[in-house]
Amino acid sequence: MKKEIHIFFTALMFFTRIPCPKWVNHDPEYLRLSSKYFPLVGIIVGGIGAVVFYGASFLFSIEISVLLSIFTTIYATGAFHEDGFADVCDGFGGGWTKEKILLIMKDSRLGTYGTVGILLILAIKFTALIKIPPFYIPLVLISGHSLSRFIATTLIYTHPYVRDTEDSKAKPAAKSMNTQMLVISGLFGIIPLFLFQNLWIFLTIIPMYLSKMFLAAKFKRWIGGQTGDCAGAVQQLSEVVFYLTIIAIWKYI
Predict the structure, then answer these.
(1) How many domains does the structure of the chain reveal?
(2) Which residue range is the domain that position 84 belongs to?
(3) Which of 1, 42, 103, 204 could form a disulfide with 146 if both were Cys (CB 3.0 to 4.6 A apart)?
(4) CA distances (Å), origin 6, targets 2, 20, 30, 145
């Protein structure tokens, strides 16, 4: 139990800016095992965004409250996954070989493709959330953050890690995942969905996984697998797909 607690805090430390006990560090072995708690971290991050939205909604409009909640979740994670999405946009937008794509993704500078990509995905995220009934937004935020992180872990499970440099801080977390870890990740990912008390909500998993398959096919074709940035891109895209699917479900079912 003590080891699992350490692994969870390792995940929390690595994927967020949330303060952790001083005895927690970036031990490579714990970091490798931490990906199973990725969706649980999502529940925490989404919960923070939900609390901010709920509190802000008493003072501000829904639009401002949603913006504040998005800002809070980005701050809580240090834009960890948004950065990965932007890097993937730059790498696959500007690179035409595996080596060039990986080199561009490793570059800390933000290019045109990354700028356009991150602006568009944030705009879609905001627009989708304000279309959701305010009463459900906190639960939608929590579910979107947890389930999208589970979808990201499926990429780690199905595709090999391809970056061959040893200086990548995301390497241990993105390198491997066994079936037991995937099942644990899946349980944490879907738990918030039960709070909707509507089985139709589970349909959101289908388009989310299809979005992962779409990106995974591009990753496989161009670089032969995945990196930490690729997992971040899958998380961001599947999160947005979750919000859009929620809107579609409530409109037609």
Answers:
(1) 1
(2) 2-252
(3) 42
(4) 6, 10, 8, 22
